[in-house]
Amino acid sequence: MEAVKKPFFVLLVNLVITALLFLFNAPAYTLKYYINSVFYVVFFYLFIALMMWVIRGRFFDGITYSFRRFYNKTSKQRDYLEEWKGKPLPSETVNQSWLRMFFFQGVFMLMIMFVLLFFYYAGVAN
């Protein structure tokens, strides 16, 4: 939960991770390969954030409820102590603060990537 409270520290950690990806995976140390490293981190954060957003939007709740109900009806080993209706649905398990943290990190790193792309294409045009 500390990561949610200190988003700029996490952003600094992301920049360090990006630099390490660049140093260990780049065939040549150019701005192009650093932008690629930033993209990998941006893609990770935005992919996780969008998946959490879809889950939070109750997209999978009906499917999950149907599978639980079907399993309860067809299962030969009934556990009467476990109530399948009382289990939380996927949309209830997504924490809103974590969702905001992933979106913030992804969008802020995306803005950094766009600034780097501007400098890259400004240098290529000259």
From TrEMBL:
Short name of one Pfam family: DUF3899
UniProt keyword list: Membrane, Transmembrane, Transmembrane helix
Domain of life: Bacteria
Residue ranges of domain DUF3899 in the record: 35-118
Coiled coil: none
Signal sequence segment: none
UniProt keyword annotation of Transmembrane helix present: yes
Residues spanning the membrane: 7-27, 33-55, 102-122
Protein name: DUF3899 domain-containing protein
